Amino acid sequence: xxxxxxxxxxxxxxxxxxxxxxxxxxxxxxxxxxxxxxxxxxxxxxxxxxxxxxxxxxxxxxxxxxxxxxxxxxxxxxxxxxxxxxxxxxxxxxxxxxxxxxxxxxxxxxxxxxxxxxxxxxxxxxxxxxxxxxxxx
Length: 137
Fold this sequence. Notes:
By secondary structure, the chain is mostly helical. The protein has two domains: 1-30; 33-62 and 78-137, no CATH class. Helices cover 65% and strands 0% of the residues.
């Protein structure tokens, strides 16, 4: 009996370590790849996964300026030493501009779907959203 319990605990701890390792790999992947752009297009996507991918990607990047921000009021942030070594300022600006439109799309998408996010992260389908709208009339 003790042996069976020991094996069960061993398997449980191995699966927890594997899940943590997978979570770290996923976070690293999200931080290096703008997967949130394609994720938003999937009607069956988990809202929390898209949000995590977006947050991880932008965690160490300067977010693009939005139209309603004052023109000419560019935030002067000190670039890290590593950032200066790896990329020129022009390269960093080009990267920000490349994803500026997708960044704005994400903000709009988030506002649109947030009212329909379920506790498990599932977003109600268009039909379910229509039903909610009909009931609230």
